[in-house]
Amino acid sequence: MLALRLARGAHPLVQLRRLLVAAAAAGTGFLLLCTLAYAMEHPGAGSVLRLAWCVAPIAATVYFAVAVARTDPGTRPRAGLSAVGLGPARLRVLAAISTAVACALGSMVALLVFLHLRGDLSGLPFDGAAAELLAAERPLPLAAALTLLTVVPLAASATSAAALRPRSAKAGGVEEPAAPAPAPSGLPWGVALLAAGLAVETYASGRGGGPGGGLPMPGGADGNPAGILAGWALTALGLALAGPGLTYLCGRVLQAARPGAVRLLAGRVLQEEARRIGRPLGVVCAVASGAYASAVLYAGPRPGVGPLTTLGALLVAGCAVLTLATAAVEARQSRADTTAALLRLGAPATMLRGSAALRAGALTTVFAPLTWLVAELAALPLGR
How far is CA 266 from CA 130, 175, 182, 183, 346, in A? Predict the structure, then answer.
């Protein structure tokens, strides 16, 4: 009940972020139910492969839900809460419950929409256009459907509780400009995984799919070699791991060669926020490069992209962008005390705005060409 009261009394922007989490969970739940419907019509290994396609939307939804839970004001320790029994551990439980409630709401919406399109509630809508896609002529195994719908709420709540565990020292802020945060250690691993992913994709595209060697996509686009998908996954993981390191290097470059106050502040903030901003920024770059490669792939003589494939792609891209925006909000919240202190000391607001613009320009200068380069390298073997 306490979690529901905190959720009801939250700021409208907080409520909007929770509704977006519910919408993402609804879309992912609908994809899972459509996979179940396909399995009812086509039992066999193809159903397992289609279920594997849902891993990316599930991961994107959980990632976004965790980012929203981290920025929820109700999950941050405040003075006096421990005295009434709301310590860090209890706040973690409340965050997990709030996340589970939002995702469960989206899953129930997905179930209602799925049943409506199947005609199980009030007859077939849209002249039965979705009857074949959703196996409307077969009885729905309700236990299996409910089991699939619990995947996102359980994964999101468990991951949120793990991400909000108390830490020994608080990170973020720029109270000590003389002691910058240590550099992230994932850049070499990210570069290695990125190179490995591009190599795997090139090798798999050279061999071709062959009969039975494709990995069918939900919605009707078949014939893609599984090796290409593995290459994409490695490339995305590499960009996510390399993102914090690249963000930290941007901060180092901004502070090079006798920096002024604006460059020093911008560089130090990037170093402090490298882990928080860099990883979602790397994920967005991976999604953008994957979208470009997909556009090249479907430009040739291949089956068209089905509606469920489009829904899955929109879910992944939308969750990636929203996660980056949410991480930016979290970074701003973590710097609120430092910003207020600088303003009290007489720092002009134009300096703070100039620092923010400089940070955005530095990140764009580094990540935009990187995304284009990875997209070109990933699309090169697909266009042959």
Answer: 52, 14, 16, 16, 18
DSSP 225: B
Q: How far is residue 166 from each of residues 7, 27, 125, 305, measured CA to CA in Å?
A: 22, 32, 50, 44
Angle between helices 261-272 and 226-254 (to 10 degrees): 140
| Secondary structure class of 127 (helix, strand, coil) | helix
Considering Cα of 238, then 242, then 244, then 247, what sign does the dihedral take? negative
Place of tokens 């509780």: 161
The stretches of the chain forming alpha helices (DSSP H) are: 2-8, 12-41, 45-53, 55-71, 88-118, 142-149, 151-163, 187-207, 226-254, 261-272, 274-297, 307-334, 336-344, 349-379
Asked if residue 32 has pLDDT above 80, the reply is yes
- H or E segment to which residue 171 belongs: none
Q: Which residues pair with 225 in a beta bridge?
A: 214
Going 120 to 142 to 57 to 65, the CA torsion angle's sign is positive
Torsion of CA 39, 42, 48, 49, to 10 degrees: -120
Strand, coil or helix: 73: helix
Q: Which of 303, 296, 165, 293 is nearest to 236 (CA)?
A: 293
- Rounded to whole angstroms, how far apart are CA atoms 375 and 352? 34
Please give the backbone phi and psi of residue 214, each rounded to the nearest 5 degrees, phi first: -85, 170
Please list the residues that pair with 214 across neighbouring strands.
225
pTM of the model: 0.84
Q: Cα(228)–Cα(225) distance, rounded to whole angstroms? A: 6
What is the Cα–Cα distance from 76 to 364, expressed in whole angstroms? 31
At 102 the three-state DSSP class reads helix
Q: Which of 27-36, 130-139, 142-151, 242-251 has the lowest mean pLDDT?
A: 130-139
Domain extents in the chain: 1-165, 182-384
pLDDT of residue 184: 87
pLDDT band (50, 70, 90) for residue 52: confident
| Overall average pLDDT of the 51-80 stretch | 82
Report the Cα 148 to chain-centroid distance in Å.
20
**Number of neighbours of residue 353 by Cβ within 10 angstroms:** 11
